[in-house]
Amino acid sequence: MRLEDVIGPVMIGPSSSHTAGAARLGRLAALIWGRPVREVTIFLRGSFAATWWGHGTDLAILAGLLGFLPDDPRIPNAREEAKKKGIHWTFKAEHPDGAHPNSARFLFKDEDTSMEVVGASIGGGAVRLLEIDGFKLELSGELPALITFHRDTPGVVASITGLLASKGLNIATLTLHRQGRGKGAAMVVELDENPQTEIMDAISRCHSEIFRVLPLKLGE
Amino acid sequence: MLSFEEILSISRTKAISFPDAFVERQSLEYGDKIPVIKENMALRLQEMRRSVEEALEKKPSGKIVSDISDKMNFYEGANQPLSGKFVTRACQIALAVATHNASMGRIVAAPTAGSCGILPGVLFAAEEIFSFSQQTLLEGLITAGGIGTIIASRATLSGAEGGCQAECGAAAAMAAGALTHMRKASTEAVAQSAALVIKSILGLVCDPVAGLVEVPCIKRNGTLTALAAVCSDMASAGIESSIPPDEVIDAMYKVGRALPETLRETSLGGIAATPRALKIEEKLKALAPDIK
Question: How many Cβ atoms sit within 10 Å of the Cβ of residue A154?
Answer without folding.
Answer: 7
